[in-house]
Amino acid sequence: MIRVGVDIVDVERIRRLYERHGRHFVERVFTEIEAEYSFRTRGDRVYERLAARFAAKEAVIKALGYSVPFRSIEVKNSSSGKPVVTCELAGGKIEASLSHTDRLAIAYVLLEGE
């Protein structure tokens, strides 16, 4: 069975959440690998990267059809830059495409499972 999930996130929303809640927001939603990758850049690109990962997590949840903890979903990059999404609770292969501008981030996910 193949399931699809898509999500779009306002980058400014992620910035406001970070400004209001700081590291607590990051630690509650993102894994260490995701946070490290996002904060490795400077300026507003941090929020773009966080927003893209947030969108991917939401897209995975939509594809699953039920809620799982955000931190159980992890978005890394392969050596070529392709997003690699894993979810210990998904029970299937996940393919993803992420994109962002300075204002919006979008994620499209295909979940192949039993």
What's this entry about, in short?
The protein is built from 4 helices and 5 strands. It is α+β, with helices and mostly antiparallel strands. The model has no long low-confidence stretch (mean pLDDT 95).
Question: Explain this structure to me?
Answer:
With 114 residues, the chain is an alpha+beta fold. The protein has a single domain (2-113), classed as Ribosomal Protein L22, Chain A, CATH 3.90.470. The protein is built from 4 helices and 5 strands. The chain has a 3-stranded antiparallel β-sheet. Strands 2-3 form a two-stranded antiparallel sheet. Strand 4 and strand 5 (104-113) form a beta hairpin. The longest helix has 20 residues, at 45-64. The radius of gyration is 13 Å and the shape is globular. The N and C termini lie close together (6 Å). 34% of the residues are buried.
List the helices and strands and how they pair.
Blueprint: E1 2-10, H1 11-21, H2 23-29, H3 32-39, H4 45-64, E2 73-77, E3 83-87, E4 92-100, E5 104-113
Antiparallel strand pairs: 1-5, 2-3, 4-5
Helix pairs in contact: 1-4, 3-4
Key terms:
4 helices, 114 residues, globular, 40% helix, Ribosomal Protein L22, Chain A, two-stranded antiparallel sheet
What is the H/E order? EHHHHEEEE
Instruction: Give the class-level CATH name.
Output: Alpha Beta
Q: Which value, in Å, is the CA radius of gyration?
A: 13 Å
**Spatial order of strands in the largest sheet:** 1-5-4
Helix content: 40-55%
N-C termini distance? 6 Å
CATH structural architecture: Alpha-Beta Complex
**What is the typical, i.e. mean, pLDDT?**
95
Number of strands: 5
Largest sheet: 3 strands, antiparallel
Beta fraction: 25-35%
Instruction: Return residue spans where pLDDT drops below 50 for at least 5 consecutive residues.
Output: none
Output the structural class. Answer: alpha+beta
Count the helices. How many? 4
Count of domain modules: 1
